[in-house]
Amino acid sequence: MTPGVSGPAVYLDLDGTLVDTTYLHAYAWWRALDDAGETRPMAAIHPLIGMGSADLLPRLIGRQDEAIDSAHASHFQQLHPLVRPLPGAVQLLHRLAGAGAAVVIVTSAKKADLEALLQPLGPGAPLTDVVDGDDVASAKPAPDPFIRALGRTGGDPGSGLAMGDSVWDIEAAARAGMPCIGVQTGGIARHDLLAAGAVAVYRDLTELLGSWDASPLAPLLAMR
């Protein structure tokens, strides 16, 4: 992956946007919390997936807890063999790159999980760069991951567009000065994604690909 962006760039979330892992994370957190005697219903956990543990755990149990964070990591690693690409993910990456866009992954995932998360996208995935949760002090919904990605690629928020499945992606991108497309593949309702500030919302990546010319991607890619 070679940093350096001279034209439009798309900054993509990974979990729940390109790979089908939102509910795997919810289950891993549920197991980790239960292990610690801090049982919470999955319905309380699911809406928080996509934010870093430093924000997720205080919202769930009122404090940060390194043991629970580590237990989540362990439970999620056991689920690595179940990671699958979401429909349209591989096609989206290649279509963006083929249209001249830099393709940058911006994720709250930890480096230890990256290989398992990226492998389903194929060995030839045209990625310009990857910024993960270990690269920044604060994960989403803080803007730090997007700011770090912009800095590493030399990108400009004015020629960038983010894409994610959670309200935390949308909020983080907005704080970094970028609009964000929402997709419902993480199980978040269209209304909630729009209320968070998404410039457009699609049921999934297949619908986005089928609406390409009418999507926010079309004017962005016309900038090249």
Describe the structure in your own words.
The protein is of the alpha/beta class. The protein has two domains: 9-20 and 83-221, HAD superfamily/HAD-like (Rossmann fold), CATH 3.40.50; 22-82. The chain contains eleven helices and six strands. It has helices spanning 22-35, 42-45, 53-61, 66-78, 89-98, 111-118, 144-153, 167-175, 190-196, 205-210, 217-221, and strands at 9-12, 102-106, 129-131, 160-164, 180-183, 200-202. The protein has a six-stranded parallel β-sheet with strand order 3-2-1-4-5-6. Helix 1 crosses helix 4. The chain is globular and about 55 Å long. The mean pLDDT is 95.
Topology:
Blueprint (H helix, E strand, L loop, with lengths): L8 E4 L9 H14 L6 H4 L7 H9 L4 H13 L10 H10 L3 E5 L4 H8 L10 E3 L12 H10 L6 E5 L2 H9 L4 E4 L6 H7 L3 E3 L2 H6 L6 H5 L3
Parallel strand pairs: 1-2, 1-4, 2-3, 4-5, 5-6
Helix pairs in contact: 1-4
**Anisotropy-based shape:** globular
Oligomer: single chain
CATH superfamily of the largest domain: HAD superfamily/HAD-like
Number of strands: 6
Beta-strand fraction estimate: 5-15%
Return the string of H and E elements.
EHHHHHEHEHEHEHEHH
N- to C-terminal distance: 20 Å
Flag low-confidence runs. none
Enter the CATH topology name of the largest domain: Rossmann fold
Average pLDDT taken over every residue: 95
Total number of helical segments?
Answer: 11
Give me the side-by-side strand order of the main sheet: 3-2-1-4-5-6
Largest β-sheet summary: 6 strands, parallel
CATH architectural type of the largest domain: 3-Layer(aba) Sandwich
The radius of gyration is 16 Å
CATH first level of the largest domain: which class?
Alpha Beta
Into which percent range does the helicity of residues fall?
A: 40-55%
